[in-house]
Design a protein that fits this description.
This protein is mainly alpha-helical and 229 residues long. The chain has two domains: 135 residues, Divalent-metal-dependent TIM barrel enzymes (TIM Barrel); 92 residues, no CATH class. It contains eight helices and six strands. Strands 1-2-3 form a three-stranded parallel β-sheet, covered by helices on one side. Strands 4-5-6 form a three-stranded parallel β-sheet. The protein is globular.
């Protein structure tokens, strides 16, 4: 989108009394990879995120989601980590100047060999400019990696964003289509004092022809469970 299109979209959002809480640019598909060994690909990836910062500023969106990228699986992961760190540091500085907070997501080993755990999240964030990046939680990725939610709660008040969706037999399913104890997770998070946003992430192939219906289903499911009126 160019500036005019973004401003038009911002006006449409405001006219509906809505707001954008987080922008998630493409980052798990080639050629976007912040840990890429090929410098041209890595620079392209950085520019891709910079465009997201520009969009966030126009849309008055406070957060942009980032992940660490992936290195070659037959090469030392330490090298990929270093490239990711350098890329994320550059992006953190630029985002901070625009007033945008980066939220760092853990990915499963299917998508990344660089950053998969909340402990690695904490380490990477410690290497960034102070206040420029915070951790987030993806419920489905946590379950896929057989991680406990308490490990993410160890971030305390720094936990800044959550992807909420169902899983099994697929992932990124609308609420009610899988078997995850969603209400239990919500109770744990709310009891722990989580104050951030929940983003419905339901992009399994079955929903792509009618994504709005997946949103309606998930919201209806939450109402049925008494999560809100």
């Amino acid at each position: 989108m160019d500036e005019a299109q973004l401003k038009e979209k911002a006006a449409q959002i405001r006219s509906r009394e809505l707001s954008v809480c987080c922008i998630t640019p493409e980052q798990c598909q080639y050629p976007v990879n912040l840990a890429a060994e090929d410098e041209k690909i890595r620079e392209y990836s950085i520019r891709n995120f910079e465009r997201a910062f520009y969009a966030a500023e126009i849309l008055k969106c406070p957060k942009v989601l980032v992940s660490a990228g992936c290195g070659y699986f037959n090469k030392p992961v330490e090298d990929a980590w270093k490239r990711s760190e350098e890329s994320l540091h550059r992006l953190s500085e630029k985002a901070q100047k625009r007033g945008v907070l980066l939220v760092l997501e853990t990915l499963t080993p299917l998508s990344s060999n660089v950053l998969n755990t909340p402990e690695q999240q904490k380490e990477m964030i410690s290497l960034m400019p102070s206040g420029s990046m915070k951790p987030m939680l993806d419920i489905g990725q946590m379950v896929y990696m057989d991680q406990k939610i308490e490990r993410y709660l160890a971030h305390g008040e720094e936990l800044a964003h959550i992807h909420l969706h169902d899983s099994h037999p697929a992932v990124h399913m609308a609420l009610g289509d899988g078997d995850l104890p969603i209400c239990e997770y919500l109770d744990i998070l709310e009891s722990a004092g989580y104050k951030g946003m929940y983003a419905l992430e339901q992009n399994d192939q079955r929903y792509r022809s009618n994504p709005r219906q997946a949103d309606i289903q998930s919201i209806g499911w939450l109402k049925k469970q008494g999560v809100f009126d």
